[in-house]
């Protein structure tokens, strides 16, 4: 009654009247309802949103948007609306002044509406100042206001059309103006404002339109349409894809996760350990809380906590991505509740068809309600998916980034447990698991919520019979739990096998050239198949388990419905399954089907993600190298004149192992050139690694002043242009860049390369020779212009005269780096007189140190060493590689980074295509679902139109199944897009299977006799070689005959084609023209294995595989232990291997990283000695060993391969001076050929090379 008085002075206007609104053929709202509820609803909505929205805007400032015509219009209309509302208010006051007393509602409603319009105007301006280009809050407000006004408008028009109508002219006109203004505001809100000032998108050539799209465009994914049209007209290129939103780029995403992980990890490190201290100062009061930091305390009792507390990666992921992801909860919850609107409206629709007296408009009302409900569900669901996919991609990016960063800094002991295979899997498989889970994780609470709601509504519909269906579901729970446990077990086993397989495949692909040269493919194929067999066993079990799981879960909804209906009908006779009960129940069972089917997927996804979570946690918790173990001082004000100071330092590769370097003490003045010399495996490269903080410091003090640059022993090359390999992310300074290229002797190479320095370098520098790779690696270091240079024997892979050029122009006293501090590991003796300090190493210690003259005068080990090699002293240009380290990182890690540096920022490419793909899916799904919603609309509409000729059963059938269409269309999109994505794998496999294969391994018809080759005569007849059909010849018309038993040296400048000759001999590349004849058999006519088993090579890159030392020497187990030990003795490795705890079973790390490069080359020599074929090829095989070991190797080759044909590619000319003949190659052609003494007399190319090497 109070409200009646509020609406009309005489109390004759009720708030609600069913007879006016519902039970009538022409429905309308009461005037009281129109003046209160319909006016207040938009007001209450905006005031309810205001505090939260204000808080959000104050925290998310995107910049300032200048006043635009759009903004000015919206603001002006806001003020106009306020004026219109308050005009009504003042009109009411004016009426009162004339004695017309209207109800209080005519004062309250305009006042409230006017204030709300002021608030809306304020928000329009606030949004502009905070950089909001389009607002969902405001669009919804104007939409609600318009819908409420529409109902009032209809009522006013109906009233005005009545004959005896009393019209309130002023209020009606003001309302029509209000309605028009609200309509215009709604239309304007559909458009987006301009970008804020200083927005990053302004400078972006192809910005993502999402951030600047209007709210309407965002919820319907309309902003993607442009790309779809473009893709329809022509195939999309990667350049057509938009840039990423700034909040999605890895530079933003990765550091946040890494920072949060470090915090969590540090918290666990500081876990409370109960320590009772006894103070050494008795005067200190017992309860004193202020403890002097320097006070000596003694721990008496240390009680370790009961349970070890691991850092929680889940907590870190939640902290990093949770807030944004939580929005998906909101969308999912509303969507789930709205899902049940369908069956409820269906119930009303069936009742409507059954009730012949019901007015037609009710049927149309239900139809519209059903359609609007379905459309809202579509929009909500895809906003939910959008948030999930974006979150999933951010998590995936962050995890990949965190793993990548961690891989650069984990300690060497940790590197042993985390193989390349595992790291690759963590970045691909495990990171993908989180992305998959992001879509499903909400089903953990959503599925039970849907099940409970469905069962509740079924209870209302069918009564206690529903319990029969519940019983079926409960019975399935323990069964499912057991399956989840088994799945997890299989998952762990599968990932372990997968890690091993990827590790092995990675090694095989890295060392494929060596495998081919040795014809070891079959042995390694068996190893891969063994691992794969194990993996397949687990996969098969998982597949059976998944099949059983899928079968039971597909059956479950059907069984639930069957049991419920059966019990309902049999329990009581009066229980009749009519159309309403049957189809409403079926619609609810259909809703129930999805959560019941999805739950097993969710559980399996959670199980997989928990396995991945644990693997990632373990990897990210690995011990890191400590960059602080080395004190880094600034160049200016760094104190003292020494650039590097090391005092009594001991270093180890792993805490559990004995130290590699003991008691190292030295200091190097700024700008000094220091040479580090010593035998293979004495710790030269380890010393550089220690200075890079790649080793663990056990004790001592190390200080380095300024920035570091490092040139590794084995060059690391990126798959990029030669220029980018040298610049490595630095800015191009043309003059400096040219001088670096000239100094590093790269100018002649640039002339040969097809596109100069723009030439694309293949993976691992495949289209560069060993020497070219080394010079590019050196040029990269020189270009970065650091203060201290650590050079790990960079001259070993280049020829004597090139080495001389580089020393003079780069490293030496007059080179580009003359003012920098340089530490050069070398086996070359000729430059030692030009260095400032020589450090002589032996057994991990510094045995001698001083200048060249001082060491000679001291007459110690160094002087003796020099006297021994006095004959070769002048020749040894910078050529020989020192021992590389025990834990040289995965290819490239040592080459580019140490803890003190940050690797180049990861690319965002992965995310761009991934994100675009997901958004295109959403675009298509929204549109497809709208088609489905139209099917629902028309099914309901035709049911209403034909209500008198249709039975309730048919209406129920058509509408309940049309409700399912949208779900199936949605899944159709997802499945087809997933198939599209996954079919790429099949296409790639197909493409790979169609690549050109090498010749057969065995050809029975042409197989040579077992005793072939008996003589070892090699004949090149007009032989030409090219690497690809479209490239020039790298070898041109080679005509040469090498008689059996001859020792032939092959020399020439780097890139002259020396190694290409060996590739041709082993048929790694087939001849373009001409042929090679070995003992009267054309090698092109026989099987590859028949050829490669009969020739032995000691390759340029000493490649070892993970596995035992014995497996690396003899993978087919063809030889006895005695023969293997004999080969090791002849290769001067017996003492080293005997000292190992496991002897021949010593486990080699990936790539043989726990042996020095010199030791690896000796292992390759031992392989050759085991095979002992008639033809031996040495491809710069002694580049990485010291002079003493080189001499021993040469003498071994002379004695052990006395009757064999030996072809040696040499940089050290002294090793081939006693050979029978020498081939001099230049630009792929033989320039000179003859005995070394004859060639020297000719004074040609060979003479000039010998002169450069100081041999003449």
From TrEMBL:
GO terms for biological process: lipid transport. SMART domains: AAA. Its EC number is 7.6.2.2, 7.6.2.3. GO terms for cellular component: basolateral plasma membrane. Keywords: ATP-binding, Cell membrane, Hydrolase, Lipid transport, Membrane, Nucleotide-binding, Repeat, Translocase, Transmembrane, Transmembrane helix, Transport. The chain crosses the membrane at residues 37-56, 76-94, 100-124, 136-153, 173-191, 324-343, 363-385, 437-459, 465-485, 543-571, 583-607, 924-945, 951-973. One of its GO terms (molecular function) is ABC-type glutathione S-conjugate transporter activity. Residues 326-608, 920-981 form the ABC transmembrane type-1 domain. PROSITE patterns: ABC_TM1F, ABC_TRANSPORTER_1, ABC_TRANSPORTER_2. Coiled coil: none annotated. InterPro entries: AAA+_ATPase (IPR003593), ABC1_TM_dom (IPR011527), ABC1_TM_sf (IPR036640), ABC_transporter-like_ATP-bd (IPR003439), ABC_transporter-like_CS (IPR017871), ABC_transporter_C-like (IPR050173), MRP (IPR005292), P-loop_NTPase (IPR027417). Pfam families: ABC_membrane, ABC_tran, TMD0_ABC. It catalyses: leukotriene C4(in) + ATP + H2O = leukotriene C4(out) + ADP + phosphate + H(+); sphing-4-enine 1-phosphate(in) + ATP + H2O = sphing-4-enine 1-phosphate(out) + ADP + phosphate + H(+); 17beta-estradiol 17-O-(beta-D-glucuronate)(in) + ATP + H2O = 17beta-estradiol 17-O-(beta-D-glucuronate)(out) + ADP + phosphate + H(+); ATP + H2O + xenobioticSide 1 = ADP + phosphate + xenobioticSide 2. It is a multi-pass membrane protein. Residues 644-868, 1018-1252 form the ABC transporter domain. SUPFAM superfamilies: ABC transporter transmembrane region (SSF90123), P-loop containing nucleoside triphosphate hydrolases (SSF52540). It is found in: Cell membrane. PANTHER family: ATP-BINDING CASSETTE SUB-FAMILY C (PTHR24223), MULTIDRUG RESISTANCE-ASSOCIATED PROTEIN 1 (PTHR24223:SF241). Monomer; does not require oligomerization for channel activity. May form oligomers in the membrane. Interacts with SLC26A3, SLC26A6 and NHERF1. Interacts with SHANK2. Interacts with MYO6. Interacts (via C-terminus) with GOPC (via PDZ domain); this promotes CFTR internalization and thereby decreases channel activity. Interacts with SLC4A7 through NHERF1. Found in a complex with MYO5B and RAB11A. Interacts with ANO1. Interacts with SLC26A8. Interacts with AHCYL1; the interaction increases CFTR activity. Interacts with CSE1L. Belongs to the ABC transporter superfamily. ABCC family. Conjugate transporter (TC 3.A.1.208) subfamily. This is Multidrug resistance-associated protein 1. The lineage of its organism: Eukaryota, Metazoa, Chordata, Craniata, Vertebrata. The gene is ABCC1.
């Amino acid at each position: 009654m109070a409200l009646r008085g509020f609406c009309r002075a005489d109390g004759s206007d009720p708030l609600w009247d069913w007879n006016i609104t519902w039970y009538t053929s022409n429905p309308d709202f009461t005037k009281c309802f129109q003046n209160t509820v319909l006016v207040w609803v938009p007001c209450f909505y905006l005031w309810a949103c205001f505090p939260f929205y204000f808080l959000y805007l104050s925290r998310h400032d995107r910049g300032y948007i200048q006043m635009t015509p759009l903004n000015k219009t919206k603001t002006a209309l806001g003020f106009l609306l306020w004026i219109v509302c308050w005009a009504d208010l003042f009109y009411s006051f004016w009426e009162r002044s004339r004695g017309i007393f209207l109800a209080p509602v005519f004062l309250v409603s305009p006042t409230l509406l006017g204030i709300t319009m002021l608030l809306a105007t304020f928000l329009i301006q606030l949004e502009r100042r905070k950089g909001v280009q389009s607002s969902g809050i405001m669009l919804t407000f104007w939409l609600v206001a318009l819908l409420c006004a529409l109902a009032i408008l209809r009522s006013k028009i109906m009233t005005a059309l009545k004959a005896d109508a009393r019209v309130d002219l002023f209020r009606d006109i003001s309302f029509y103006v209000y309605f028009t203004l609200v309509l215009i505001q709604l239309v304007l809100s559909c458009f987006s404002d301009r970008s804020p000032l200083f927005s990053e998108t302004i400078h972006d050539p192809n910005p993502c339109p999402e951030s600047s799209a209007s709210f309407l465009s965002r919820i319907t994914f309309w902003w993607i349409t442009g790309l779809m049209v473009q893709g329809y007209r022509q195939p999309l290129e990667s350049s057509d894809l938009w840039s990423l939103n700034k909040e999605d780029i890895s530079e933003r995403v990765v550091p946040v996760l890494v920072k949060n992980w470090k915090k969590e990890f540090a918290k666990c490190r500081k876990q409370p350990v109960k320590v009772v201290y006894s103070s050494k100062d008795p005067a200190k009061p017992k309860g004193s809380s202020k403890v002097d930091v320097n006070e000596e305390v003694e721990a008496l009792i240390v009680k370790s906590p009961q349970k070890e507390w691991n850092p929680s990666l889940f907590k870190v992921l939640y902290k990093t991505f949770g807030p944004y992801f939580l929005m998906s909860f909101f969308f999912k919850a509303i969507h789930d509740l709205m899902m049940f609107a369908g069956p409820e409206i269906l119930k009303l629709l069936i009742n409507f068809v059954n009730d012949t007296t019901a007015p037609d408009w009710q049927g149309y009302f239900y139809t519209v309600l059903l359609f609007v409900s379905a459309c809202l569900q579509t929009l909500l669901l895809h906003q939910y998916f959008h948030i999930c996919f974006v979150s999933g991609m951010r998590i995936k990016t962050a995890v990949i980034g965190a793993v990548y960063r961690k891989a650069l800094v984990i300690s060497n002991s940790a590197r042993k447990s985390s193989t390349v295979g595992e790291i690759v899997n963590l970045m691909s498989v495990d990171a993908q698991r989180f992305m998959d889970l992001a879509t499903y994780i909400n089903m953990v609470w959503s599925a039970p919520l849907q099940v409970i709601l469905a069962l509740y509504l079924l209870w209302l519909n069918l009564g206690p019979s529903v319990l029969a269906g519940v019983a079926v579901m409960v019975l399935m729970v323990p069964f499912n739990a057991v399956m989840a446990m088994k799945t997890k077990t299989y998952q762990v086993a599968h990932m372990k096998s997968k890690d091993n397989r990827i590790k092995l495949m990675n090694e095989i692909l890295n060392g494929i050239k060596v495998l081919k040269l040795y014809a070891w493919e079959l042995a390694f194929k068996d190893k891969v198949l063994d691992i794969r067999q194990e993996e397949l066993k687990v996969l098969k079990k998982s597949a059976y388990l998944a099949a059983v799981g899928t079968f039971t879960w597909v059956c479950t909804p059907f069984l639930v419905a069957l049991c419920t209906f059966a019990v309902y009908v049999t329990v009581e006779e009066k229980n009749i399954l009519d159309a309403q009960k049957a189809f409403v129940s079926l619609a609810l069972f259909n809703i129930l089907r999805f959560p019941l089917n999805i739950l097993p997927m969710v559980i399996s996804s959670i199980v997989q993600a928990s396995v991945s979570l644990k693997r990632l946690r373990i990897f990210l918790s690995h011990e890191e190298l400590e960059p602080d173990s080395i004190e880094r001082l600034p160049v200016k004000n760094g104190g003292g004149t020494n650039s590097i100071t090391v005092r009594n330092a001991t270093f180890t590769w792993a805490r559990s192992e004995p130290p590699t370097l003991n008691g190292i003490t030295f200091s190097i003045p700024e700008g000094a050139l220091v040479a580090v010399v010593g035998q293979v495996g004495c710790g030269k490269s380890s010393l550089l690694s220690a200075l890079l903080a790649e080793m663990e410091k056990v004790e001592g003090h190390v200080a380095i002043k300024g920035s570091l640059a490092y040139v590794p022993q084995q060059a690391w090359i990126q798959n990029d242009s030669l220029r980018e390999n040298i610049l490595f992310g630095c800015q191009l300074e043309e003059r400096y860049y040219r001088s670096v290229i000239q100094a590093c002797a790269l100018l002649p190479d640039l002339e040969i390369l097809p596109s100069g320095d723009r030439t694309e370098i293949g993976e691992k520098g495949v289209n560069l020779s060993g020497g070219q790779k080394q010079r590019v690696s050196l040029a990269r270091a020189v270009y970065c212009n650091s203060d201290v240079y650590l050079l790990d024997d960079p001259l070993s892979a280049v020829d004597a005269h090139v080495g001389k050029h580089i020393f003079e122009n780069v490293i030496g006293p007059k080179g580009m780096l003359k003012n920098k501090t340089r530490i050069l590991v070398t086996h070359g003796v000729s430059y030692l007189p030009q260095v400032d300090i020589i450090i002589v190493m032996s057994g991990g210690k510094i045995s001698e140190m001083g200048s060249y003259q001082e060491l000679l005068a001291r007459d110690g080990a160094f002087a003796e060493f020099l006297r021994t090699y006095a004959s070769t002293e002048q020749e040894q240009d910078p050529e020989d590689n020192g021992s590389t380290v025990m834990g040289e990182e995965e290819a490239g890690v040592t080459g580019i980074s140490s803890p003190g540096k940050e690797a180049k920022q990861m690319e965002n490419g992965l995310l761009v295509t991934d994100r675009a793909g997901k958004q295109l899916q959403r675009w298509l799904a929204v549109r497809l679902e709208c088609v489905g919603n139209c099917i629902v609309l028309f099914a309901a509409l035709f049911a209403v139109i034909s209500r008198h000729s249709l039975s309730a059963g048919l209406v129920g059938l058509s509408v309940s199944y049309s409700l399912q269409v949208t779900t199936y269309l949605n899944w159709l999109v997802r499945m087809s897009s997933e198939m599209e994505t996954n079919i790429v794998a099949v296409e790639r496999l197909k493409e790979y299977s169609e690549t050109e294969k090498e010749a057969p391994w065995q050809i029975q018809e042409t197989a040579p006799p077992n005793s072939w080759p008996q003589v070892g005569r090699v004949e090149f007849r007009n032989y030409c070689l090219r690497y690809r059909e479209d490239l020039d010849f790298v070898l041109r018309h080679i005509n040469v005959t090498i008689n059996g038993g001859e020792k032939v040296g092959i020399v020439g400048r780097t890139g002259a084609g020396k190694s290409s000759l060996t590739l041709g001999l082993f048929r790694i590349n087939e001849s373009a023209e001409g042929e090679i004849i070995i003992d009267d058999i054309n090698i092109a006519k026989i099987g590859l294995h028949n050829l490669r088993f009969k020739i032995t090579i000691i390759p340029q890159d000493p490649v070892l595989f993970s596995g035992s030392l014995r497996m690396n020497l003899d993978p087919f187990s063809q030889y006895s232990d005695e023969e293997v030990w004999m080969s090791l003795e002849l290769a001067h490795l017996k003492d080293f291997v005997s000292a190992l705890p496991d002897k021949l079973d010593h486990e080699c790390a990936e790539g043989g990283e726990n042996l020095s490069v010199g030791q690896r080359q000796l292992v390759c020599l031992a392989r050759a000695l085991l095979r002992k074929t008639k033809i031996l090829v040495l491809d710069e095989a002694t580049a990485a060993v010291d002079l003493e070991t080189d001499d021993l190797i040469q003498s071994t080759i002379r004695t052990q391969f006395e009757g064999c044909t030996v072809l040696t590619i040499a940089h050290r000319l002294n090793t081939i001076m006693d050979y029978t003949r020498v081939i001099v190659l230049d630009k792929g052609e033989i320039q000179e050929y003859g005995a070394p003494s004859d060639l020297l007399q000719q004074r040609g190319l060979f003479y000039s090379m010998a002169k450069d090497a100081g041999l003449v």
